[in-house]
Specification:
6 strands; mainly beta; elongated; two-stranded antiparallel sheet
Length: 79
């Protein structure tokens, strides 16, 4: 039996762009957009305590341009 929390986030971005994922404003990892522009990130960091969270993403393209943060995706953890 495994009690590991895994959160999976996905989206689209320009091919080859690096996507930075933030949890409550703190960077928790990156992903790279594939040939179709799809990216996926699995958060396996520290277990989340009960509470409200917001996930955002920022994209850095091949030229180094950085996007504004995405609209937040909010969720609640209840343990």
């Amino acid at each position: 039996m495994n009690n590991e929390q895994v959160l999976i986030f996905s989206g689209t971005a320009e091919f080859g762009s690096q996507v930075s994922i933030m949890l409550n404003g703190v960077a928790v990892g990156t992903s790279k957009a594939d040939g179709s522009g799809k990216w996926t990130f699995e958060y396996r960091g520290h277990p989340l305590a009960s509470g409200s969270y917001a996930v955002t993403a920022m994209v850095t393209d091949g030229a180094g341009n950085v996007s504004a943060p995405s609209k937040a995706m909010d969720f609640v953890v209840e343990l």
